[in-house]
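Async update (no meeting this week)

Hi team, since we skipped the sync, here's where things stand on the single-chain job. The sequence we agreed to prioritize is pasted below, unchanged from the tracker. I ran it this morning and attached the output directly underneath so nobody has to dig for it. Comments welcome in thread, and please keep replies under the output.
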Amino acid sequence: MKNLLKAFAFAFALFLYYNCSVEPTEIIHEETFVNQQQADPSIEIPDVIDQETSTCTNQDPQAKLINSSLLNADIEVFDSFGMLLTHAYAVSPGDESPILSFPVGITTFVISTSESVKNIEINMATCMIFEVEIDEDNQLDTDTPTPL
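Output:
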């Protein structure tokens, strides 16, 4: 009975943790414009997600694997402590992985096929993407990140 209050507080904290979510600001702005347009149809909704006109601000770094080889490929993203942050396994030949997002910092990318494994360590900052392409000869075409 004496731990009931602690258990209740812990359960309440877990409830709040699992039910709270963070939405990207683009979605919030878009919803606001949609609501305004419904009230007044003459208001035009700007394209907030247009990549050519928008600039990146504080966006987490990203990675993407393009597999042009004849073998399935994997990409794993580890932090500086060796913890797995994100991954894409069994990317089929001729296919590409989804865009993987992860926190800023020294990051180790492990790109592997059934024939080879390559580790690449890069200090990734905000607004950077690391696009890795495996060519027909199972060689990496690029191993440098580019700005978003």
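Quick observations from my side:
Confidence is low (pLDDT under 50) at residues 48-53.
The chain is about 20% helix and 30% strand.
Reply here if anything looks off.
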